[in-house]
Write a structure and sequence with these properties.
The chain is of the alpha+beta class. It is built from 2 helices and 5 strands. It has a 5-stranded antiparallel beta sheet with strand order 4-3-2-1-5. The longest helix is centred in the N-terminal third of the chain and has 30 residues, at about 1-30. A hairpin with a 4-residue loop joins strand 1 and strand 2. It is elongated. GO terms for molecular function: RNA binding. Belongs to the snRNP Sm proteins family. Pfam families: LSM (PF01423). This is Sm domain-containing protein.
Length: about 110
Amino acid sequence: METENEENGTGMQTEVEESAYSLARCKLENLLNKSMRIRMTDGRTLVGLFLCTDRDCNVILGSAQEFLKSTDSFSQGEPRVLGLAMIPGHHVVSIEVESESLQTTTHGL
C-alpha cells in the first residue's frame, strides 16, 4: 500500500510541476518580440526585442542597442547599435519590459 501511495504522490507532484512549467512557458511566450531593457553587471544596458532564452537564463535580443550609462527611460543616452545580441545569464542584473509593448498585446485581444 505504501508503494502505491508514494507512486500516487509522485504523480501528483509531477502534475503540479508540469502545470508550473506550462504557466512559466506561457508567460515567456507572451513576452516574445516585446521591447525590453536588460541591465548587466558591468553597468551596460541593452534594449531590444526579446527573441529567446534558455535554461541557463541566457537571453537573445534582436535589434539591440547598447547604452553605456544606466538610463531611466528607453530613449535616453547615446546608443550603440548591436543588432542581434546574446546576453549570458550570469551577467544579467535586471530585466524590464517596456510597458507600451505589453499594452499593445492586451488591446489586440
